[in-house]
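Appendix B, record 7
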Amino acid sequence: MKTASSDLAMPTDSSATQDRRAYDAHLGSPLRGYFLCPLTFVWAVGFAMLFPIAAFVAPKWFKKHGWWFPRTWGRVPLWWHGVKVDVRGASNLEFEGSRLLLFNHVSLLDLLVMSGYCPANSVVIHKKEFQRIPGVGIALKSLGMIAVDRKDTKSAIASMNSAAQRIRERDETVIMAPEGTRSRKGGLQQFKKGPFLLAMQTGAPLVPFLMRGVDQILPMGSIIIRPGRVTIDVLPPISPEGWERKDLNKHMDEVREVFLEYLTPEAE
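Structure tokens (predicted):
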């Protein structure tokens, strides 16, 4: 059995880090995005509405194969918008047991990329506001995703406890954004404590799932998806074994430094 590494891959070559950070998404013309924007909206809402229907009509089949729906939901619009996705390091997900998949959140395009390329049978911890999106909200519920109400501490704690229980009992891949929400200024924000407390509580390793190019293809405030290239880097798992609560901030900073090998920090 392949186990999670307890060592952090800390930066060793500053020039190599700068090269990785200076990412070029090879953007194409936005014209295709203008024409396809309405179609993408219809697809996002319409296809998502099929999720609960399939869950109701064929619950056993949906429980086993339901991951096909979000994967198709994400990949189809990426294809017609001319967004090519290159996944590196997928072998770092090839170990038994549960894991916490941590991704950088900087663009709405993250939703399509994560849906299309995350591991099968994953569960996403998402903010409760997503449930208000037509079609998407009911799709998330039918897939058993976990909503967190950030304005209600008691409810948020209950959601995290539910995630911890599922990690222990089902060996699931739990997907979280350690920044908590999208970066408004661009770049990697400071991390929240939730994912790290969950890792300590369950012993599940943290797997960085870094997306580069999404903020160039669909910048903050835009709805026009341009053709381009997204690279996903799946980094070696980081074990929380031996972590102590008093050192939590230190561990958060160490993991964030791993992300910063590939990503620029948030602009001040």
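Remarks on this record: The longest helix spans residues 31-48. The beta strands are 83-88, 99-103, 122-127, 146-148, 173-176, 206-212, 228-234.
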